[in-house]
Design a protein that fits this description.
Blueprint: H1 2-17, E1 33-39, E2 46-54, E3 57-63, E4 69-76, E5 79-82, H2 90-103, H3 109-112, E6 118-121, E7 124-127, E8 131-136, E9 140-144, E10 149-154
Antiparallel strand pairs: 1-2, 1-10, 2-3, 3-4, 4-5, 6-7, 7-8, 8-9, 9-10
């Protein structure tokens, strides 16, 4: 009985350790990138995500429609760091990592990510361990991790 218990614990820990991979180096952004993020839930939430470069860091700030921060994370040297007084948000980190993969140009994927972590099938992509990315019309990206679906599009700005 004990060997089965150890095996079960080892498998559980392995499953918990699966994380969405990050690129070898953070991309360079010339200006902040405002993104509208719609979560496919019963109430159809809309969020605002702003990605901006700050020195060596890539800062990700997620807000609800009223401007209340939901998550703030900084990607520095291939690792996530909490930014501000918000509690850690593992789900946001996973989403941010998947979105970073989705925003990486196809010709840079081989240099940015380990080949074992991703696949490209036509215009669709998959990122280990469980992200499916689809590119739709009008610069819309759909991300699905099996439990949550996201629709991502550039934020409409007024001239």
């Amino acid at each position: 009985m004990k060997p089965w218990m150890l095996l079960a614990c080892a498998l559980l820990l392995t499953a918990c350790a699966a994380r969405t991979p990050l690129p070898v180096a953070s991309p360079v952004l010339e200006q902040p990138l405002p993104i509208s993020l719609q979560v496919s839930t019963a109430d159809g939430q809309d969020w605002l995500l702003v990605i901006q470069a700050e020195g060596r860091a890539l800062r990700w700030s997620l807000f609800d429609p009223l401007g209340v921060p939901l998550a703030r994370q900084s990607l520095v040297d291939g690792a996530w760091h909490n930014d501000g007084l918000l509690p850690p948000n593992a789900a946001a980190r996973e989403l941010f990592a998947a979105l970073l993969f989705a925003l990486t140009p196809a010709d840079e994927l081989g240099q940015a990510y380990d080949q074992a972590d991703w696949q490209q099938k036509g215009t669709d992509r998959q990122l280990a361990p469980h992200w499916h990315i689809q590119y739709a019309a009008q610069q819309t990206i759909r991300l699905d991790n099996g439990t949550q679906r996201y629709r991502v599009s550039p934020l409409e700005t007024q001239p």
